[in-house]
Design brief:
The complex is a heterodimer of chains A (260) and B (65). Chain A is α/β, with parallel strands linked by helices. Chain A is 37% helix and 19% strand. Chain A is built from eleven helices and ten strands. In chain A, the strands form two sheets. Chain A has an eight-stranded mixed β-sheet, sandwiched between helices. Chain A has a two-stranded antiparallel sheet with strand order 5-6. The chains are: A alpha/beta (260), B alpha+beta (65).
């Protein structure tokens, strides 16, 4: 089935800016669902607030567009009530790690069978380019015009530390890898986190003179490398892509609790 | 890949970001004067489908005949 058959056509074209990476993530997510062979009514997409969270409006599955940062709490409820459904949570970096930081670490700790796809564009795009907990130190945002003083989270390390049983990172440039990783994350039983480095040319790109969507994607190509690659010995600043954690653990579920 | 396939571009959805043009390994796509993606060189196209995968506007589809 073509990708567009999974969309609510009346809401398209989408509102994302020219060159924004979120559409690439949405299309990768659809391809992953298609590959697994899930029917539309077997999938629930729960989102919070932000550019990336608008995905719940475009996707023609069961969808909930909920409170800022709280999507994982709603998704946990959906999964506990209907463990037969596949629950996917598209989030932004601010939604997942600032407003929803506590929900994120506790969803990871409980290791509930959800898939969080976190589009990390390092900025709050929807509200005008304010700095997020993923804005790297020294980079500019509307709230830090001379560069942000604080250190950023490392999402992969945070998810690992909080107990997620599947943790991966990729970028919008690596579109095939993106689809494969989301597919693996959905198939994984337990809390899966996929960090997708996405581009916000409108705010992050402009404020930091990183160029348009194309230039920012070239940056993802040139500044990342696969886990354990030789390239990183010469350039330790390269960001690693790949699957960092993939562990089978007993999954938190109503059945599991009854079995105890 | 099927060399018979066709790259179909939805001009209503295309926002002219140029991602497909920049990353096409065969330089088969251009931005036309209205800043919409255009499959200008079908003869160069290898039907790899990377333009479809990377199109943020879901405006490109590689249709197999």
């Amino acid at each position: 089935m073509p990708v567009k058959d999974y969309l609510r056509l009346r809401f398209l074209p989408h509102i994302w800016c020219p060159g924004c990476g979120h559409g690439i993530v949405m299309s990768g997510m659809i391809r992953a669902i298609e590959e697994i062979g899930l029917e539309k009514n077997e999938v629930v997409v729960v989102s919070g607030i932000g550019c990336s969270s608008r995905m719940a409006g475009y996707l023609d599955f069961h969808t909930m567009h909920t409170l800022h940062g709280r999507a994982l709490a709603f998704a946990t409820g959906v999964k506990l009530g209907r463990p037969d459904l596949t629950v996917i949570v598209p989030m932004g970096d601010g939604d997942a790690l600032a407003i929803g930081g506590n929900h994120f670490i506790h969803a990871a700790r409980r290791d509930i069978d959800l898939t969080a796809v976190i589009m990390n564009n390092r900025i709050y795009g929807m509200t005008g380019g304010q700095g997020s907990p993923m804005t790297p130190q020294g980079m500019r945002s509307t709230t830090a015009p001379r560069g942000i003083a604080d250190a950023a989270f490392d999402l992969v390390e945070l998810a690992k530390g909080a107990g997620a049983s599947f943790v991966a990172r990729t970028t919008t440039f690596h579109a095939t890898e993106l689809t494969r990783m989301i597919e693996k994350a959905i198939r994984h039983k337990g809390f899966s986190v996929v960090e997708v480095m996405s581009q916000c040319p409108t705010y992050y790109g402009r404020q930091n003179r990183l160029g348009n969507g194309v230039e920012m994607m070239k940056g993802f190509r040139d500044n990342t490398t696969s886990i354990g690659s030789k390239k990183r010995e010469a350039r330790p600043d390269l960001i690693e892509r790949g699957i960092f954690v993939d562990e089978d653990r007993p999954v938190y579920s109503p059945e599991g609790l009854k079995a105890d | 890949m099927d060399k018979e396939g066709k790259v179909v571009i939805n001009r209503e959805w295309c926002k002219g970001c140029g991602i497909c043009v920049a990353f096409c390994p065969e330089e088969a796509l251009i931005l036309d004067p209205e800043e919409k993606a255009y499959w200008a060189h079908p003869e160069k196209c290898k039907r790899c489908g990377l333009c479809e995968l990377r199109c943020p506007d879901i405006a490109i589809e590689l249709v197999q005949k």
